[in-house]
Amino acid sequence: MASVAQWPALDRSSGDLEGQVYRLMRDRILRGQMPAGQRVPSTRVMAVSFGVARSTVVNAYDRLKAEGYLHSTSGAATRVAAFPMTPLSGQAVQPPPNLPRVTEFKRGGLFEPGVPDVSTFPHAAWARCLGARGRSLRVHDLGYSDHGGIRELREAILEHISATRGVVARPEQIVIVPSTGAAIGLLASVLLQPDHPGDIVWMEDPGYASAQAILRMAGASLVPVPCNAEGIDIAQGTGPSPRLIYVMPSHQYPTGVTMSLQRRLALLEFARANGAIVLEDDYDSEFQYASRPIAALQGVDHGEVVAYIGTFSKTLAPGLRVAYAVIPSRLLAATEAAQRLRGAVVPVHMQAALADFMRDGRFRAHLRQMNAIYAERMAATVEALRRHCGDWLEVGVGGGGLQLVSWFHDGKTDDVAVARAINSNGFAVRPISALYLGPARPGLLLGIARMEAQAADAAAASIASLLATMPVNA
């Protein structure tokens, strides 16, 4: 067992004592300093050693268990988990063709995915921040010097994602952009070379249709890599080595799965060995209902192969048009140069106001409020769909995020036709098959953000009555 005397003192001035304990143990496990099977110190011993409450250590251990670093059984000591690397397939085959998909569907109806509830937006607090900054911007902020974003907002974002997502970076590595799409396009312009048409990009399958479209426009040849209950299986990637690998490891869109620790480590090792960049899109993982959020992949990347993307579109409002990317140091100069040429910038008064909004604690308070609201709506939607639509659909767990996946029991169902029929009755669901690059599994994707809990039952019953009239086998 590791001696507690070997553990460094916690930095009490920086706060987040639980996170510090978690990161200290995680990093030692990843470096091999705590081998698989090793018994870890008891929570009581660690608490005394660090001079913190036992609950702080218990919560840190729970995070490590949830992410697969530790395991324990009833009545036995907690030990370091074993997570062997998955062998990678070396067989190169021709990448499959990029198949056409239907992407245009009704907007604004019930159960529309990917759209937050902006009715609870904190208008008064935001107006105060925006008005104050509009009246008192510094001369320095009004110039051309900070193409990547003003220092205050970079620092505020880093403070937030370090504490909540485990991201490790310097403020200089954060680039402020108008949207996730702008961030993907910016990085694609740096990584994909115009004189090399057909640069290979591996993508989770099924995956985010907007990212697929943006990367195609950048000249990429997209190769689907299967995504199952443990996330992307990098060993199933085929063909030439990719320049870019696009993933959503913490809360995958549309399946909602969390990438396992084994898959995460395999992905990082593959990217390092093949000179690829992993583009981590942290879509809506700040909303977790069954457990606390899983740490970002970027935080365990010791080879600087991960570029991390986040957005305020889901946590605040899409209309603010603010997102960000955490860029590996070796790509920073090229990224900043590309951003100057592309003009993908956010107005400075918006940046300054958002920095104040975050520093005053208002953003974190809004997140807590919305997490509780969305958790209630997700639970009500899951329960209603299982009760009314269980004969046709396998309803997902709904452990987080703003959308819920449901798979048709009948694998031959035409989910595009079903979705169009349902949507003609006031809904805005999406067919899952439209999100595949390779062979598709039919299902429906439903957004829960604007579905009031008390209205979920009637909505699910309405969908069930429509399914009963369609050629969908139970």
TrEMBL record:
* InterPro entries linked to this entry: Aminotransferase_I/II_large (IPR004839), HTH_trans_reg/aminotransferase (IPR051446), PyrdxlP-dep_Trfase (IPR015424), PyrdxlP-dep_Trfase_major (IPR015421), Tscrpt_reg_HTH_GntR (IPR000524), WH-like_DNA-bd_sf (IPR036388), WH_DNA-bd_sf (IPR036390)
Transferase recorded as keyword: yes
Reply yes or no: does the keyword Transferase apply: yes
Coiled coil where? Answer: none
The entry lists its GO molecular-function terms as: transaminase activity
Residue ranges constituting the HTH gntR-type domain according to the UniProt record: 15-83
**Do you know which Gene3D superfamilies this protein is assigned to?**
Type I PLP-dependent aspartate aminotransferase-like (Major domain), Winged helix-like DNA-binding domain superfamily/Winged helix DNA-binding domain
Ordered alphabetically, the record's keywords are: Aminotransferase, DNA-binding, Pyridoxal phosphate, Transcription, Transcription regulation, Transferase
Which family would the database say this protein is a member of? In the C-terminal section; belongs to the class-I pyridoxal-phosphate-dependent aminotransferase family.
**Protein name as it appears in the record:** GntR family transcriptional regulator/MocR family aminotransferase
